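Appendix B. Raw example, untouched.
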Amino acid sequence: MDSFMETMEQGVLGHLMALERGGMGRQKQHDSQRSETLKARAVTLRAKRDQLKHHTDVVKTLKDKIVKGLPLRDEDAAADGFVELQKSLLTAWRMQLKDLQRAHHLIGNFAPVKSHRAHCHCRSIVPSLSGGYDLVECKDGKSACVSFHTAFEGVRLETYSVELDLTRAVQISRHNVPPSFPLESLAKRTLQKDLKAFLQTLSQNLNALAARRRQVCLLKELVGSVEVMESNQLCSVLVLMCTAQSEAPKAVLCTLEYGDLAQCLPTRVSIECEDKVLSGSPQWKKNQSLLLESPAHTALLTMRRMGSIS
């Protein structure tokens, strides 16, 4: 009887051990198959990652070339995503131009030109330079014509036009901006990076140039008070000869330097006279400040009324 029970126990244990070994074998087989599946998936994902990285690098290279206006090779033009990239860039530029056009038309309708004369009593106020620009899409969206309007003291002045080529990078194709104006250097700094900033800066600088030129014309009309001795094309330096009222009339040389070409007021004014006492007097110190804070013709008219010049 005991031997029979031992035989039964050994048979049951052996059966359980056999089942356990079989289960472990199937688990190992399952783990092995899962491992192979994961390895194959990892290889596929790595291949897709490398392909995506290569595609991203190609698109980035093409975009840099387009934005910088560099020539494209045949293999570049045939690269995946080039056509789509060029279309998307053109669409973005056109949308930006249309937004700017809409905004400036709204500004033009609700912000009419104002005269500075209404503000002349405020010595610290810089003259308002009204103007702005208009954008017109042309050549089926391949270019845009920008008209920059200038004005000073409520008077409309010159209008300058710039045509922008949008076929690849934004580039200036034609313009009638004065040759002395630093248009090329301004375009290199901001045109490709920020079109809106470029247009606003160009508009402000052209408006200031027109305002400075207008002041020179008005100064030449002040017969007997001042003589324009020197002025360059950008009107960034202006030398005036004034006749100071004193016991013996004396010539005073006023040099106005416009260090900021986006403004119509000088950044530095120097007063020179053979009579050092006169040029350093409180009255002429006040005149110097007046020339810094007001348009030149307005300042000289004030100096005449105060009896500083004849």
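End of appendix B.
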